[in-house]
Amino acid sequence: MDRLSIHGGGPLNGVIPISGAKNSALKLMAAALLCDQPLQLSSMPNLADTRFMARLLEQLGVRVDWPAGSSVCRLDAETISSTIAPYDLVRKMRATFNVLGPLLARIGHATVSLPGGCAIGARPVDLHLKAFEAMGADIVIEQGYVKAAALRGLKGAHILFPFVSVGATEHAMLAAVLADGETVLENAACEPEIADLAFCLNSVGARITGAGTPIIRIQGVSRLGGGRYDVIPDRIEAGTYAIAAAAAGGEVLLEGARGEDLVSLIDHLRLAGVRVVAEERGLRVSRADGPIHAVDVDTAPHPGFPTDLQAQFMALMTIADGTSLIRENIFENRFMHAPELNRLGADITVRGREATVRGVRQLKGAQVMATDLRASVSLVIAALAAEGETMVNRVYHLDRGFERLEEKLGRCGARITRLSGSI
Ligand code: EPZ
Question: What letter would DSSP give residue 34?
């Protein structure tokens, strides 16, 4: 396992190109299963997770043409040869569960392993399954597998989600595009990735309106063709580098980042004393003179503060002037980075879903270890602001979601090196 050595204390200055959004790309790849002609996706992030999804699609019979290092991926699902997604593939990456809905809609049946819990919480899929049942699917859970069948096709349905779920909204939408009649999704998630999925599906023949609002209407169609689609820029990657620049100091241009996807983060950064300016090429972020101010955070579904930026913002708050309260409202166990940040000299106390972060004057380098993707990158941010060397272990988490992280930060002056093997 690789690790990262980071010598902190210097500012970041330069241009950081923002990659395509991981959490959009994964669902667009699943959408290819609905298309009987090739779907070509561009701005595809080269990540462990997207490459893993490509492997699963290949197992299902999809012809995947995605040369190493390329950001263009062609998926041809004219023939699907298997409708089984085994435990080993779904266990390693939850988003692979998203093949269930498309297989059910296109082929009429599928057997997909339950994803199980993960480091940030239990993460059940009950809302996904209830949506398929409302569309007329028979669902049985046997030996850890979901066996779903709708041999005469799915039927349009009115689905009211009891709470907002990104995954259930996307998954229901993926299944409903080929259902017979209209499906209405109420209390739908409004994340930009959902609008992106709808745009892509509409570009190959689906009829979806309202994606990006709490009510989505889907008129079922009998088939989807193929086409080309460009993945949206990754708002979480952009937000992460914005916070990194705030923590380390300096000025970065986040090339391709869209301010409209990051309104809540930008508000919080400005309150903290960080300058964020939307330009034609992207977002320019600079640390104004003076201290970082303490700002409270409450994570919430979009357009609220994203849970996927909570760990990174906490890293920034460790060096703020004052005390901030950070409340995690989406996942029940998403503070594992707090004790690791404390190893760097931060002063964080966690009580249930609330973390109290008392700002300190200076972090100091240490050995740290992370348990999930966003937690790992929060340690990188803290390391950039810390004095001396920090060793971030278990870098494979970062490789799941951040494309060429060392190179992007290195070009802005960060002293960051990947070493083989961890302790
Ligand atoms: C997506 O997860 C993202 N993953 C997550 O990003 C992100 O944190 C999350 O949305 C919230 O924005 C991908 O897109 C691949 P949810 P998802 O369904 O869809 C509960 C990252 O780091 N719930 O909105 O799984 C669930 O347990 C990842 O890139 C149920 O109880 O999130 C959670 O508490 C981490 N039953 C809450 O809802 C269900 O059937 C919101 O989860 C579904 C969800």
Answer: G
Number of Cβ within 10 Å of residue 340's Cβ equals 25
Q: How far, in Å, is the centroid of ligand 1 from the Cα of 118?
A: 11
Structure tokens at 176: 């409903």
> Cα 139 to the chain's mean position, in Å?
28
Q: Whose CA is nearest to atom 4 of ligand 1?
A: 23
* Confidence (pLDDT) at 63: 98
Atom of ligand 1 nearest to the CA of 127: 40
Instruction: Confirm whether pTM is higher than 0.90.
Output: yes
In 249-353, at which residue ranges do the beta strands (DSSP E only) sit? 250-255, 274-279, 282-287, 297-298, 323-327, 347-351
SS3 174: helix
**What's the 168 CA to ligand 1 centre distance in angstroms?**
8
Q: Write the DSSP assignment of 226-264 as a string of letters.
A: -EEEEPPB-HHHHHHHHHHHHHH-EEEEEET--GGG-HH
pLDDT tens per residue across span 95-141: 999 999 999 999 999 999 998 667 887 789 999 999 999 999 999 99
Q: Is the CB of residue 373 below 6 angstroms from any atom belonging to ligand 1?
A: yes
Q: What is the pLDDT of residues 172-193, one digit of tens each?
A: 999 999 999 999 999 999 999 9
Phi, psi of 404 (to 5 degrees): 50, 45
Q: Is 319 in the pocket of ligand 1 (CB under 6 A)?
A: no
227: left (phi over 0), alpha (psi -120 to 50) or beta: left
Residues with catalytic annotation? 118
Find the 193 Cα to ligand 1 centroid distance in Å: 12
Q: Which atom of ligand 1 is nearest to the CA of 301?
A: 12
d(CA 136, CA 319): 53
CA nearest to 353, candidates 331, 336, 328, 372: 328
Per the CB < 8 A criterion, the answer to whether 311 and 374 are in contact is: yes
Query: Which 3 state secondary structure label does DSSP give 274?
Result: strand
